[in-house]
Design a protein that fits this description.
ATP synthesis; Pyruvate Kinase, Chain: A, domain 1; 5-stranded mixed beta sheet; 13% strand; alpha/beta
């Protein structure tokens, strides 16, 4: 390999390192912001879901349309991915988990609500109907957006357009661990709520000591159980969906920061190896030229 080619590769690698280093710094800032938002929302989400768990012992909630369990023949899938790549295997893991979750349904029986282009493009290419598609470019998403989507899903579920509503997202565990997950949003059951709470409570830290949610055998509701539940349950569905989005946001920026850090470290390593190769070849060339000069000098003296 010529020295000029090696030098060109070194310069290109150094430019790549500058870009990935800058992207790592930007992702680190966004990661801290989204992690703080997701972690700060966990106690609220857990408290909101615990209300529903405590009410689950009453007969009123069992008769509520959003808690009606029926034979699953039609499914709505909400998939939360990013619009951008460079986040390692984050999006592919969520898409794979979502595809496995709806594999038992015919394609015509699945309706997709895609939040993020990666999930939308995957299911659109495979013939699934995309009911709504949202851009996932903003780091701060208003709760009203998820509230509107939750209201639409709830209405379609009560109309029996869908028999169940699934959400595929990336559950944030730590900066270096994001787990693809698929959770059932509707119908609401105590088992689903307990699973959501297990996802919310971290393995270590302040909130890890929280006890399990228990539902009583009976519950008195005032002023009227139906009136309270008609307001409370749709609100809790919105809270659950918004919490999924916060977890997905924190996972996205964490995965991208780690991916850019790995790329920066690798580009630095490649530049170092190329520099050693450049110096080695240049030194060999200098040694060869010195040997030729000495050999020529000796030939002239003989």
């Amino acid at each position: 390999m010529a020295l000029r080619d090696i030098k060109t590769k070194i310069q290109a690698t150094e430019r790549t390192h500058k870009v990935t280093r800058a992207m790592e710094a930007v992702s680190a800032v966004k990661m801290r912001t989204t992690q703080s938002t997701a972690l700060a929302g966990r106690p609220y989400a857990r408290a909101a879901l615990s209300i529903l768990a405590r009410l689950s012992g009453s007969a009123d909630i069992m008769r509520h349309p959003l808690a009606h369990v029926r034979r699953a023949e039609r499914c709505a899938l909400v998939i939360l991915t990013s619009d951008k790549g460079l986040a390692g295997a984050l999006n592919s893991g969520v898409i794979k988990a979502a595809a496995e979750a709806v594999a038992a349904y015919p394609v015509a029986a699945v309706t997709v609500y895609a939040y993020g282009k990666k999930g939308e493009e995957y299911f659109a290419r495979r013939g699934y109907r995309i009911a709504r598609a949202f851009e996932n470019k903003q780091d701060v998403v208003e709760f009203s957006v998820m509230e509107e989507l939750a209201a639409e899903l709830s209405q379609e579920f009560m109309k029996e357009t869908y028999d169940e509503v699934l959400v595929a997202y990336s559950n944030f565990k730590s900066t270096f661990e994001q787990v693809p997950a698929v959770r059932r949003l509707l119908p609401l059951t105590l088992a689903n709520i307990e699973q959501l709470v297990r996802d919310i409570v971290p393995v270590k830290g302040k909130w890890s000591e929280l006890g399990p949610i228990e539902s009583p055998a009976a519950y008195s509701i005032e002023p009227d159980g139906k009136e309270v539940l008609n307001y409370l349950i749709p609100r809790l569905v919105s809270v659950s969906l918004y919490h999924f989005l916060l977890e997905a946001k924190a996972s996205e920026h964490s995965a991208r920061m780690v991916a850019m850090k790995n790329a920066s470290d690798k580009s630095r390593e490649v530049a170092h190896d190329l520099t050693r190769l450049f110096n080695k070849i240049r030194q060999a060339g200098i040694t060869r030229e010195v040997s030729e000069i000495v050999g020529g000098r000796e030939a002239l003296t003989t």
